[in-house]
Fold this sequence. Notes:
The structure holds two protein chains of two kinds. Chain A is an all-alpha fold.
Amino acid sequence: xxxxxxxxxxxxLERKAARRSRARMxxxxxxxxxxxxxxxxxxxxxxxxxxxxxxxxxxxAFFDWSGFGPLERFVGFANFRETLLxxxxxxxFRNSLLFMLCVVTIQVPLALLMALLLNAVWLKGKAFYxxxxxxxxxxxxxxxxxxxxxxxxxxxxxxxxVLIRLGVLxxxxxxxxxxxxxxxxVVLVGIWKSxxxxxxxxxxxxxxxxxxxxxxxxxxxxxxxxxLWYITIPLLLPIASxxxxxxxxxxxxxxxxxxxxxxxxxxxxxxxxxxYIYRYAFSGKGEARVGFASAAGVIYGIxxxxxxxxxxxxxxxxxxxxxxSY
Amino acid sequence: MMxxxxxxxxxxxxxxxxxxGCGIIWIYPFLWMITASFKTNREYISSGISLWxxxxxxxxxxxxxETAHFSVYFWNTVLVTVAVVFIVIAVCSMTGYAVGRYRxxxxxxxxxxxxxxxxxxxxxxxxxxxxxxxxxxxNNSLWGVILAEAGGAHVLFxxxxxxxxxxxxxxLEESAEMDGSGFVRTFVQIMLPLxxxxxxTTAIMQFMFTWNAFxxxxxxxxxxxxxxxxxxxxxxxxxxxxxxxxxxAAAASISLIPILAVFIVLQKHFIEGVAGAxx
Lengths: 326, 279
């Protein structure tokens, strides 16, 4: 009797358990479906607007194609060869590199100095100053580039007016139209435009530093200069390398500012690779050379990747040093 | 002691003077732009470096808004920006929720694919994007620009949402499920409102990106003046009216004042958003 009863109970339990686990499985697979449904839009965007364009930018590079009609004329590496033999490309390449080097070596350290100042405990009105120096970052680069054309303009430009009044200049200078000055004005405006970004990066870095280490050094009698050199800067190295990487890649892809301020002129003195590529990809006269532009884009993309790999290794090195400094 | 204090105070004052002086030069281009937008072209030429206009007149704004079609450009920009911000928030929060709170097959693969695209060497990708949108038949409406700007992988926003949703306690879903709330309702009514800080960061950053975008709208509106956004419209305007300085200043003000105003009101969020990108 008892045995029979037990067996009966066991059956019921088993059936119940089976039903429950099936229900749980169903819930789980249903949840899995929902998860896939939730990531589906991002997956579609990723495939359509990131992966497909990257792949196609490589494919186009092997064709002689104007951007319209079928891809028919396969030309092998001819576009690549032509890019690499074009002195105008190398001119743009040199300008892009020089622009990046100027921004990285001038703006990044200056932003650090300003961040140290704006991080000092004794300074009041930090938020206000931070806002002022961050302001150019939020503005439309293309519009700023056009406004700068007037500010540095040869006729009635503010810069000329001020410098003449101060007696620095006798006659107005065509800052953006002269081959000696145009590039440096672009560098100056480029540094000014994204300075606030680097300032905020550095401030974030400074605020993430462990306060007790600095306090301990103070108690041990270290002066402000010693703290800066032996503690703050070594501790900032990991974030410094990230800032360097971001700044370099952004500066190598300068486009809006140059397109609107000088359009690469005068005499290609401010031509940058992204402006060069645009000129071939969207030539207004219907003679666009999308294949050639793509090849130049691929070459430059690989160069930028190599540069960021080198800087990325710096990030790793600096990151690896962090635990040892404690 | 007194002497030292005095010296110190003088130093602090000097720093303030320096920061303010440089600050004025720093934002001078914007002061110049806004004040010039109220001057007449004649006054602009004769006034030299003095900022303050003799008489405030809105003729430049009227000229830019009506004759130069900046009303069209303005509303195009507003529409594109609002649509892109909404799409990006929806897409990224949904992705962040699924990835941050559930284990499902393919999750790791998906996340590594998203981050890997960041490090791939890219060619000139805007042309394929353009041809793709053309093939979808969207090249003659603002939806083309919107889709092109909202598309792609928003790695930073996704990672922010994933980290945030992961940090919320597990009991939230359990109690929601007890109450009979399904997957979608739990997300919309419970999880998304909790993620407000990340939604705000995403909204502000994406607003800034889209409002200031230039290359994408430039390419998508070549030969379609009705679809231009402010940056592109401004570019065309300056190309066509090289002598209308104050009209240019008014047009530039129409483009920049909205984003400047939003920044000044929400500056804390802007700065935190940018700082979050590097952390």
